[in-house]
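ok so i was messing around last nite and threw this chain in just to see what happens. nothing serious, just curious
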Amino acid sequence: MTKQKNSAPLSTPELLAPAGSPACALAAFDAGADAIYAGLSKFNARERGENFNPDSMARVIDYAHKLGRKVYVTLNTLVKECELTEIAEYLAELEELAPDALLVQDLGLLRMARECFPKLTLHASTQMGFHNSAGLRIARELGVTRVVLERQMTLDEIAAVKASTDLELEVFIHGALCASLSGQCLFSSYLGGYSGNRGKCKQPCRRRYFSKAGNGFFFSPQDLCTIDLLPQLREMGIASLKIEGRLRQPDYVRQTVSAYRMLLDAPPEEFPKLLGEARNLLSRGCGRKWSHGFLEPESGRTLIQHNALGAAGLLCGTVSELRENGFAFTTGKRLHLGDRVRVQPQSGDEGPALTLTRIYVEGRPERRALPGQTLFVCCDKPVPERGLVFKIGESFPDVSARLAALPPRRTALNLSVTLTAQEIAVEVLNVPAERFTRMLDLAPATGRPVTAEILEEEFAASDSPVFRLGEFTASISGKYFLPASRLKALRREFWETIRETLKPEAVFRESAVGLEKFRRQYTALSGCTLPAKLQETVAMKPNGAEPGNRRAIRADRLFDFNKLTNEVILPEFCPESKLPAVRRAIKAAAEAGIRRFRVTSLYGLALLDGIEAEEIIASTPLPVCNSMAAVELARFGVTRVMAHIELEKSSVEQLRDHSPLPVELYRFGRPVLLISRAAIPATGDFRDGRGNEFSVRFDRRDGLTRLYPRKVHSIPRLPGVYDYYDLTNAHWNFPETGTFNFDSETGWL
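result:
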């Protein structure tokens, strides 16, 4: 354990590993992870992965707890109105599974978990975008115990935020990075409805793009690697260090966790000597080129190199021949049966991944191929011509037998034990069953008396194959001597009685109370009463196009407000160092008589505390997809919500019909598809290989780069909702328009 200058010991932070499958979970724990994060098949930000079912999740949670480790379940996607009942059932099931915490993004889901399923500990996902001390004030009021910070913060910003709060903070330390600020990317969704906010990102940032100035991978960041920054993160008091990679295989998890575990456990004097060994371990993970990500300003400026392929892995060669049953290439790396490869199109689009199960070298079946050899890979997947072959994983021992041997979850019985000198009585609190009682004749204790802890430890030793001890309470009327042999006999007799008289289906599921509470609350919701004529709002750009309706509410950016402004729009991102300036500008706007404020990130709610406001609108990119999110925002003084721009028409209508707050619709404008602090090596207009056109603009005032579509988003008026027109980057009558997901028959995926 390292020490600070004042000799106070520094605690070792939690090492948190990704587990996209039960096999990855075992690999993580074997390598020394303190905790894993994993998801079920739906409503998690990596739905493309293998993930867990309830049974495998229960087994892994029990296994982890037996080791003294933790499991965090990811339920960190946005939720539509029509999915609220299903998500409530998910929450009920998760409360029964009893993970150590739940990671969430959606405000409505968070409210449902906190209010209806209070046994669930809540962590704020990085998708919630918390990045300053004002945001952490809101996080605390939301009821979370830990915040996973925005990945585009610097070390200095993390340190400043840590000094402002006693909430646990979690920081990403290794793995792939997104070009966009967390939770603010619409890129994949815009190109086909596959939303990163729904766990289905198609990674368009990894593709090749074309501009007049040249082509390249303009949005593909290098991977994050912080092994040399661990002492600084530890000194800050960060609670948890998180490895990215729930789409990766067990070999990656094992190697990455092993490297960081070795360094975290190393004495300070040994740390520099072990960096080389750690790098060797990490290099076998087949990732992209390493960087410090956004943790250092200089790294952020060089994070994206347009001539670097967006694909992850070790480049092994180029497909030279395609056949019906496979493909051939000359390898530049050693390959072995069981290794995983991906064949990437030259465009940078995602290619097929496969495990090497059968290869031929010079026409002969072999188990391995050496650099310089041409091999034929048997494969039934379509492979692109001239595809680039990347090694993305190594062979890993089969752990199916270990997984099958993990015992199934037993049903928990909550016990209340009463002990007197004459009797012991055991009541099962979550089953309508008779009390178990036995007569006693206990003498006062002269030495070690029986305690509640002793009773709990003994009754926890259930030999029942279907029941286990859940919650336990004990009441002891005095200090008695109870022989260990007699207590063991009583425990055996109790569990034998349970085995003979009780069936698991008779046990009351406490989560049923939460489900009923949610149903009552949801049934009571109804759409709000609106005035006959709904006034529209137009977001303006200085010296830009004028509103079509001169009586419309004029909205300007916070630092652009003037005597014509009716409403100010708060910044969607505000590093800690800029908070004082934003506070002053809000105060100046209020003193100028402005009473309408548009909040685009949760931190803005804290800055408006104490400000006289008639209207507070939750607006893009702050996502509101369901009525429960609107209920939650109303707690903070929000008076109107904008329907999340990714929603299709039917979902907007359902939100409108249930929301207790008026709903607004982004009807016209160029929405920001991606926003980044990275230096994007492109400016102006460009296109992708499918002919989709975009533009990139850098704002010197806030240091952010924004990606816009060429087409103007334009959708028809929807009855019962307010209209919002965004002229900050669009002009009336632009000929090329689109509707995003609004008119999609399949909806927002």
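not much to say yet. The CA atoms of residues 172 and 242 lie 4 Å apart.
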